[in-house]
Structure formats: structure tokens, C-alpha cells
Amino acid sequence: NDVKYYPNDRKIIFQRNRDMLFDGKVTTNNYIFNGRDFHFNYDTFHLELIHIDSIEFSVEVTDSITGEKTREKVDNKLSYSKGTLTIDEANNKSGIKNNPRYPHFDANHGASVLFNKSDVLGGVYDTTFRYQIPPFAVDSLSGDMESTLSFDGEFYSGGVFPNIKEPLEVQGDRGFGFIHEVPEEGYPLYG
User: Fold this and answer.
1) CA 191 to CA 158: how far, in whole Å?
2) Strands 111-114 and 129-133
3) Which residues contact 62 (CB under 8 A, 6 or more apart)?
4) Whole-model pTM over 0.90
5) pLDDT digits (tens, 9 = 90+) for 84-95
6) Is 85 helix (H, G, I), strand (E, B) or coil?
7) What is the distance in angstroms between the CA of the first residue and the CA of the last residue of the chain?
8) What letter does residue 91 receive in the DSSP assignment?
9) For residue 155, what are the CA distances in angstroms to 69, 129, 134, 190?
10) Which is it for the CA torsion 174, 79, 106, 95, positive or negative?
11) DSSP 126-167
């Protein structure tokens, strides 16, 4: 299981029994966790990701001319999350047994996708314009992207129109989005 740590300032605090504390980045093949107060527990072989500032994603892209495959980041990211990243079973620290379920991430507080960036329509949205994901769990973070980059949740428009429940998925432009059919009677605006 391809899990790597990139501590800020190349600093890790080692504790008893090979446990560790650090701020920085943890990556799997597809997920990039950025934050602080990351606690690695050797006995359980998992990371408590206490303050996740963002979860970024990379997808495999095939060049249409050369056929060469590369990884590129998805344009959006998840914010305001925390959870547990289990690297492998506690009795398989050496990775001898191949268990495709791992690494496994349990976001016990859910996450948000925000649209308040300056490159989204010049930064006109604040954090009330967001997609809210309830607590979720994802297996096989180093495996097939299609199965790990779809999230159930609800879109909040800051009161512009009613909340919309649709799964959030990576679209053709490598950004998160959803497709929603507006009912025939339409939606009330600012209602």
C-alpha cells in the first residue's frame, strides 16, 4: 500500500512504541491529505488525521496522441475534514498479504467542497455556497479511481435556490460537479 508522509519542515516527533506526530502531507496513489496534528499509531497501523485542511485528488489522464498516461490533480478539493487513514491490517505491517481494501479512509466528520476561490467566477461566492458531504468511508485509496471519487451529499446555494441532493463526481473538465434535472415547475429563487 503506497502511503507516504511529507512532514512540514521535514520534522517528525517520535513517541513511544514507534508512534509519530507531524504536520504536513500524507499521500496515497489517488488522495493527498494536507493538514496538521497527524498522529501515526504503530500498534493499530493507522493515522489519526486530526485537522485536515484539504483533501486533494489525482486522476490518471491518457494523452490522446501519444497514449502516455500521467496523473493530474482534480481542480476541486475537500475541506474541513478529519478522520482515520488505516494503512493496512495491524497484523500485516510488512505488506506480505495483499489486501485491496487498504489503505482505507474514514472521514468521521464528513467534508465540504467550497467554491470561494478567486478563479471561480472571480471569487464571487462565499462558504455558504458549498457541497456538504456527510461522514463517509472509502476503501482502496490506491486502487481504481472510479470507485473512490464519488460522494453522496447536498449542494447548498446560500439561499439562492433549494438545496440539491445529487452525488458529487469528477466531470470531464477534471473538476467536481453533479448533474441535476430541474423539476418541470422550476425552483423558487431566493425563497
Assistant:
1) 11
2) antiparallel
3) 68, 69
4) no
5) 999 998 888 888
6) strand
7) 49
8) T
9) 33, 8, 12, 15
10) positive
11) -TTEEEEE-SEEE--TTS-HHHHSEE--EEEETTSS--EE--
